Amino acid sequence: MADRRRSIDGEGGAGFMNGPAGGKVTPASIVSEKTAEPGKSPVQTAWDRTRRIKGHVVGFYAKLHGDPPALPPSPFLGVSLARKLGYPETLLRTIPSELGRSIAPCGNPLALLDAVSGMTILNLGCGCGLDSLAVASEFGGSIEIVNADIVPAALRLGREIAALQGHRMAWICADAERLPFRPESFDLILMNGVFNLFPEKTRLLGCCREALKPEGRLLVTDLFRTGPLPEGFEEEMDAWAWCLNGSCTLEHLRALLELSGFALNGFYDRIEETDVFFRGTISARKEL
């Protein structure tokens, strides 16, 4: 991949399968007694909230990737968005518009992959696999790519596009918080517009850490924020699906990574969206 990195802060297939790997991670987020629901403990209230959010997000993306999509067209989706973010035109021209309508990257991490022959990459929350298709177009079968998503319709679209392009890669329906892979299976885990969909980020990071090889790398492209969420956002469930409510400040993210056994290598390609939100990519390495 072309080297366009710019540091802003700080320095496949069946052979991987095993039983669910939950990892040793912290329990549900701490909820104060004042916010706990009547008759429920703070921890139970937190788990119920997490289930509601995850259920809404899964339903949202099932509609997005449906045939036909059950959500209206948006300038924040599709091949036109990927083109705006700098994905290779040679790749985008091979994706039929009816298949690429639900492409939804938060950014373009391709120049930061540091991909080399022989690597094993997990594209977690892959959607229809745009980043995987880009890697396969450059490296062919010399890199093993596993795509995982909880939404079957997204995987179906990804398989169709990959088949049209002649790429062979694994497509697995799985929850990112219960990854069905043997420990230490991957050199790199990529999440593009996925990290913010999860309320329980330490659980997600714990599962990723378990799936990575020693000193394996985590690459997260998403929205981040400069401070508190705007008023009213917390009650808007679609703001979770659009990666807004689950966004972190860089300080919070650094603390989450350290808590989960990762060292932050750097933050790259900051793009301001509003006074509150900005896009970017973080690279972190699994600590031994």
From TrEMBL:
Residues 1-26 are annotated as: Disordered. InterPro entries: Methyltranfer_dom, SAM-dependent_MTases_sf. GO terms for biological process: methylation. The keyword Transferase applies. GO terms for molecular function: methyltransferase activity. Residues 10-22 have a biased composition (Gly residues). Residues 117-259 form the Methyltransferase domain. Keywords: Methyltransferase, Transferase. This is Methyltransferase domain-containing protein. It comes from Desulfoglaeba alkanexedens ALDC. The lineage of its organism: Bacteria, Pseudomonadati, Thermodesulfobacteriota, Syntrophobacteria, Syntrophobacterales.
